[in-house]
Design a protein that fits this description.
The protein has 59 residues and is an all-beta fold. It is built from no helices and four strands. 0% of the residues lie in helices and 25% in strands.
Length: 59
Amino acid sequence: MGNGVYAVPIEAVDEDGCQRYRLWAADRMVIQAIHYRKADGSFSMNKNEAACMAAPKSR
């Protein structure tokens, strides 16, 4: 994300196949919200903009 702010994955993908991320920085406060990776590699808090994989099929 830049300037010492990192997007850290949160557990496994959700039920829609979307990987969730939280922001982390060692030297500053960051917003505590779920972020999603977009197709261009940037991040968004809007799940509708996320580049999700197909949800895993249950057996």
